[in-house]
Amino acid sequence: MKFQQLRGMKLGAASASAQIEGGDVAHNWNEWADKGHIKDGSSPRRANDHFARWREDIDLMHDMGITIYRLSIEWARVEPDDNAFDEEAIEYYKTLLRYAREKGIEPLVTLHHFTHPIWFERRGGFMKKANIAIFLRYVQHVVRELGDLCHEYVTINEPNVFATMGYLGGGFPPGLSSILGAGRVMSVLAACHIQAYKLIHTTREQLGFRDTRVGFAHHMRVFRAQNPKSPFQRICTRVARHWFQNSVSSAYLIGHFGIPLRNYSGVRPGEYSDFLALNYYTTTVVGGLREGREPNSPRNDLDWEIYPEGIAECAKELYRLLPRPIYITENGTCDNEDAYRARYIAEHLEALLDSNLPVERYYHWCFTDNFEWLDGESARFGLVHVDYETQARTIKRSGAFYRDLIQEDAMTEALYQRYIKDQTYPT
C-alpha cells in the first residue's frame, strides 16, 4: 500500500432519506416493505430515526472531521399529496441544512433516491412521459425553497439500478419484469435529469446565484467475461455493459440516445452535468446469458466482489466521455463485523489517487448503518454502528480510521499499522 497525500480530495459521507429517517411516510418503499419484500422483515419506518436525531448525527459528523455530506430530500414528505406542498417538511430540511453549514459541512442534495410518493406511483410513476412535468414541479419548488442553503444537486440516483431492479428484475418496487418497461423508465428518467439540470440552473440564476453545480449519480461496474476466450461471452459482456451503463452515460451526460433509451423530450446533444457523480461498489462477471463468478475473488458480506481498481476504471470511462470534476458519490462495503472496511476504503482511495484524475470528493456509503433496501437492517455499510433497538450510535474502528485519515490528509504508515495491516477480505 502506498503512503501518500490526498492531494485536495475531500472525504465525506452519503445517505438517503428513506434509509435513515424512519417514519410512517407514504412512499413506495414503505409500501413495498409492508408487502413482505424485505429479507429480514424490517421496514424503513424504523431505520435510524434520523428524522428526530438529525442533530446528533450531524454533530457526530462534525466531530469526525467530515466537511461534505450527501443527503436526499424525501419527496413524499415535501409533497404528500399531488401539488400540495408541506411547508413544515420544507422547513425541516432547511433547518437541517442550515445547521450542517454552521458546523462547516457542505451539503450535496439528491432530489430522487429510489423513493417517491405513493400518489405519484399510482399515476404511473416514471413509466409515463406525462409525469416528467410532475417531477420538475417538485424539483423547482425544492430548489427555490432551499435557496442559498444548497448550491449542488444530484437530480436522480442510479437510474439504471432503479429501472433494472424495479422494472426488470422485480426486486424493487413496483416489482415488474419487463425489459421494455425498464428501458422506458430509464428513458423517462433521462428526460427528468436533463430537464431538471436546465431548470435548476435557470431557477437559481433567477434567485441571483451563479455557483450552481448539477449532476446525476451513475452506478457503474466493471464488466468482464468469465471466459475471455469465449466469443459468445465477450459479446454478452459488451451488450450487458452497454445496456446497463454505457447507454445511460451517453444519454444523461451528453444527450446521445441509443438502444435501449429513447429521447422522449427532444433533447439535443449537449453537456448536461457539471460534475461526474460515480457510485461504485463491485464488478459483474458475465458467463453467457447469466452472471458468472471469478473463483477465489475477495467478497464482502453480500457476496459482492471487491475490486478496488475498478473505481478508477469506471471514473476514467466517464471522464473520457465528458471531462468534468469527479465526485465519488457512493463507495463502501457490507462488512457486518467491520473486519476489512478500513482496508477497502484505503485501497479504493489509492486507486483513485494513482489514476491522476480530478477526483474532488469521496462520499463514503454510508455514515451510519442504515436500512439497506432489500436486505433491510441485516447489511451494515456504516462507519458508525447503529443499535436499531436503542438507536445508540457508536463509531466503528473503520470510522476511527476515516476520522484519522481526514485529520492527517494522507494515508500514512502509522494509519496502516494501526488499522489495516491485519485486515483480510473473505473469499
Question: Would you kindly provide a written description of the structure presented here, covering whatever features stand out?
Answer:
The protein is of the alpha/beta class. About 40% of the residues lie in helices and about 15% in strands. α11 (about 310-320) packs parallel to α12 (about 340-355). The model has no long low-confidence stretch (mean pLDDT about 95).
Largest sheet: 8 strands, parallel, barrel
Instruction: Determine the fraction of residues in helical runs and give it as a percent range.
Output: 40-55%
Look at the structure and give the mean pLDDT. Answer: 97
The radius of gyration computed from the alpha-carbon positions, rounded to a whole number of angstroms, is 20 Å
Q: What structural class do the secondary elements suggest? A: alpha/beta
Strand arrangement, major sheet? 1-2-3-4-5-6-8-9
Number of DSSP helical runs: 14
Query: Which percent range describes the beta-strand content?
Result: 15-25%
What's the shape? globular
Indicate the low-confidence ranges by residue numbers. Answer: none
Count of β-strands: 11
Q: What are the secondary-structure elements, in order, as H or E? A: EHHHEHHEHHEHHEHEEHEHEEEHH
